[in-house]
Protein 1
Amino acid sequence: MRARLFTETTRKWWTLVAVSLGLFMIMLDNTVVNVALPSIQRDLGVGLAELQWIVAGYALAFAALLLTGGKLADRYGRRLVFVVGLVVFTAASLACGLADSGEFLIGARVVQGVGAALMNPATLSIISATFPPEQRGAAIGIWAGVSALALAIGPLVGGVVTQHIDWTWIFFVNIPVGVLAVVAGVLLIDESRDSSREQRLDVPGLATSGIGLFALTYALIEANGYGWTSGRILASLAVAVAALAAFALLEHRQRLPMLDLSLFRSGTFTGANLVILLAALAMFGVFFFVSLYMQNILGYSAVQAGAAFLPMTILIILVAPVAGRLTDRIGSRAFMTVGMTLVGLQLLYFSRLGADAGYAELFPALVVGGVGMALTMTPSAAAATRAVPVDKAGVGAAVLNSFRQVGGSLGIALMGAIMAHQAGGRTTVDAFMDGFSPALLVAAGIALTGAVVAAVLVRPHERAPVAVSVEAPA
């Protein structure tokens, strides 16, 4: 039936449309929620810790299961896992919109993250299996563009929907898109799997990494409520250290590990992942708290807050492709170093803003940050993929995405811990500003550390070793 409806050539591009629909949804949900947070807080009566979990829970589940999602897609079929992920994500979106409590919304967001982790690596694997090498670059470029566009317009979409309809519709809107993507996936995507080597799930690796990341995030978010020296928080930190140490040991000894530690023998690959981790660590928390700052302190509406981020997001869309092309000629190190430095300067500038700042004061920082993030993201991805063998490019990309999501979830938790500690239980404007400034100073220090990491570890024009065989990425 599919053969009669589409030629071989056109079906490839319709396959790209199908996976792009799913990708757009999961990347949009990384940023669309931030602008809706004040409305969610008012309607559900939740505190700062619950708001952090609403955002961090999604990123944490996404990060913890991303590599496993790639393994499942390779073993059981990329179309199957993609469609299953779509169904899980769409059903969880319905649950998010129907949530009548903070706890229910947090749980639904975690399930959304599970669906996203199944879908994301399958999208890239499907593209690699569908397109020949001479067209693969163009297809992946469109894939990356869809991802960037979704991240960029998330705040504006969230603002418009929240103000003119209701915050629940930032989740309900996923349902028709998800249903359409499921139908398109079944009709348009050919099944494929990796039969070139043994496939085995790394259950111990999944368990120890998930427990470690959850325990660390829990300790950072809940420390202010229970006290940093409370038994609950100290136990959580101890569990995090033990579980993450066990994960590193297991991955070193596993025959088929979830995370291939040999990739980190490359200084460039290590540096690129650390830079992405630090960039997300600094910026996810900033988007979270700057959204609250604009609405709760400066009095912006949801639409105004979403629109306020446009200079930054437009610059990311415009500058990132140019930076990507230039890295092919002059390497990634200079771009990453300058980019993280600009991000650090943006955060230092934000930390000086007061409770009566006008948009004219916000604008320069948004411009500087947009250029900085654009100079960081694409060159980091290029550096990471250049530094690994071609047959491990997909695994390398999945590791990079995992580091980004881990950094995001921990960034929200860390900035929130600083904010809550400085506020000391107060809920006034002065209390917010007392925490806002030092949190941004810490974020600036993290970003500037990323600039140093890029300058020291990333090597210019490091080329990937020659691979004997090419297999689809996980």
Note: The CA atoms of residues 211 and 243 lie 6 Å apart.
Protein 2
Amino acid sequence: MSALDHSGFASLRIRNFRLYLTGQSISQAGTWMQTVALGWLVLKLTGSGSLLGLVTAAQFVPALLFGPYAGALSDRRSRWHILMLTQVLAGLLAGLLAVLVSTDVVGVWSLFVLAALIGTVNAFDVPIRSSFVYEMVGPDEITGAVGVGSTVNNVSRIVGPAVAGGLIAGLGLASCFYVNALSYVVCVTTFSMMRRRDFVPKKQPEEGSGNVREGVRVVWADPRLRTPLLMSLVIGALAYENQISLPLLAKYAFGGDAGSYGFLSSAMGVGSVLGGLVVARSGRASHRRVGYAALFLGVAMLAASAMPSMGTVIAAMVVVGAGSVAFITMTSATLQLTAPVEMRGRVLALYVTALLGTTPIGGPVIGWIGQVVGPRATYVTGGVACVVTAAVAWRSLARAHEQAVSEEEATAIEARAVREGEEVEADSASAMPVNLPADEH
């Protein structure tokens, strides 16, 4: 075997996946640039944290409404054709936003409409994209492919916001939207170059194989599953609203500009990567560690809220990013280690929905707190929510135990949980949800 095989990057031998990854590396950076620019644009037009929260919520609602339908559609239609269409539509929306901003005719109402349209495109793009990776690389290389994709997302998350700050300072807000629109041209080009005859044939889903109600019933009946899910519901609503908290902190707490917001977001990305590395080497996930991770995240957020300068808060955001991915990873791995094997997929889907699906509720609440009480209060709220939730759940977590599984199975679950943790944590800092629950095949 070659070094490529041993390194875990054997999926890069597949031509279609290389093309896909090329387009994604550019598109994800462009999406992060648009995220920074859009948040800053809302604050520039309105100066309102509440409206920033509502615009963010408008992008997540369609994903929750149409996500299940998109998954069913991906099983019955060509994923390649659907993704080609979503790339074109996303590029056109970014281009329209760029024109509206550059001609100075953009208004609050148009931002709501465009946010909802962007969220609708993402609602179809995301679950289909997840399945499409499997279709490109097949079962033997899916683990490596997901890992490579996660690495690309992490790099894009660090680079994109930092570049956005520089572009906004030098060329204005519209430049980020234009760059994002051009990034979709690259995506469409790479998709058109793929050899469709090389795709793995799709498998038809079994009848009744994704019964969500059965998943809810199993979770509610087992406190080992119920407690972490309820913790995620509260913490997801109040602590994972960084797409609202960070621009408010940058602008109103420290008098910064879009570049400051970009650096805060990039710092969280660095922390997410470092936290993922630490968690991957910290041993078996457990319910107790879920509690410790929630406590660590809460303390980190409270410390960040008290930082006196932009430099110190940027450093604090690295710690917050590490704590954030630690909580997500520990909770995800623990749920998968505890849930019955045949229910793991449904339990994980419920978990991600609990964490990110609360944005339409938590986003406006945190935005209102930032506007009425102050930007630092958004992080105080999140930190207190983490600490109190950990304290309330502590007794239940201490009594819980995980299923006895082999070391190989546990290692596989925890490795996947780290990747998912980094990606889902990125969604909490982005107004573009890209990792809502989806089937891998």
Note: The longest helix spans residues 15-46.
Protein 3
Amino acid sequence: MTDSNYKDMEDSMTEDNTENRTAGGIGSLVDNVPKLGFGLMRLPRIDGGNDIDTEQLKEMVDLFLSKGFTYFDTAYGYEGSEAAIAEALVQRHPRESYLLATKLPAWKAKTTADAEQMFWTSLERTGAGYFDYYLLHNLGADRTHTFDDFGIWDFLAKQKQSGLIRHLGFSFHDKASLLDEVLSKHPEVDFVQLQLNYADWENPMVESRKCYETARRHNKPIVIMEPVKGGALTTLPDAAVAVLRKANPKASLASWAIRFAASLDGVITVLSGMSNMDQMRDNVSFMKDFRPLDEQEQEVIVKARIEIEKVPIVPCTSCGYCLPECPQNIAIPGIFEAMNNLLLYGNKRSCSFTYTWNTRLQGKGVASDCIECGACEAVCTQHIAIIEELKRASDMFGE
């Protein structure tokens, strides 16, 4: 599908969209969106396989909407996600009842035409007619320049003017200094999407706090991603769990992480990549009548962070960006999952099975297959020293 297919739609929506921007404005972004968003990267799968469990997703979508939440976040690069949300959400609920966000990864394109086509493909896949929030996907490191090389900033500005995009922003995985540079160069953006969680708040490799402060200094509202750090903040060291359980025995570990993120000023919503109904039920239970962390709870978070930092786990979020870059087909996130479980819980037998399952039994490479080319490190959103960590994994699992 090309832009010509949407010409009539553009003409009919331009006037309405101009009125919408004038009436609502960017200042309304933070106040008018419920503070829990549905991240559609880690969708439920049938029997743990590759096929998305669309029927379970429909139940999750319905529950999410019934509790008053509206924000759904997908991406061109989330395999099967845009088509799945078309079936589970767009085709089943009135367009005005939800907010849909997706993203364009220009760094995956080879030409300007390829990059622009991603936008039209996302419109076709979702069938949403327009996007409430649209993002340049994953700015940072060597990826950032591709959006300039292909003229994507101007291209998307045109789509916003036509009404196919209501709010335009970008997601970001890098240091605060680069974020400041991008926001200084593009003050026109409506919002930014950042990885913010209490474990990374003072992490010098991720710079969560510094990135947050940079966005606020530029007066940009924030969508928060990875508040639970890809699920890592639900599998904490025993000492950290003890700190949180002592403060509130009934609160889930995920609730501490999501409430921390949602308590920050200037937040549009906090995305949680919910993979099953249990996670959905838990999240909506404490976010329906959201209460920011009080001063004592903030102190509990600091104590838990101190305990987490005592364990040398790998800060992998299983985003998978490294996988297509590896010439050896090494199961990098799966290896780090087994490593972290061993470091946190010490069950060598169980973790060795996890390691074998995630590597050889899935037809993927093991840690010792690494040829140290560095392709994985160039795209790692967490800036992990992957080569050195794979060496550590090889030693831990006796290869």
Note: Residues 323-396 form one domain.
Protein 4
Amino acid sequence: MPLPNAWPGGLKNVDLVQEFGGTEGFWKALDDGIEHIRVEDGQLVLQLRE
């Protein structure tokens, strides 16, 4: 799904868990399950923790 250019640009170098999360909940669970996130050729690539 295409995203407006300004939207991802506003999130560059922002730690979403620190900014919007806490010790519990969705952002904490997301952070615990993802090893690395990167953008390649217009795609968001998630590397999950084992």
Note: The beta strands are 34-40, 43-48.
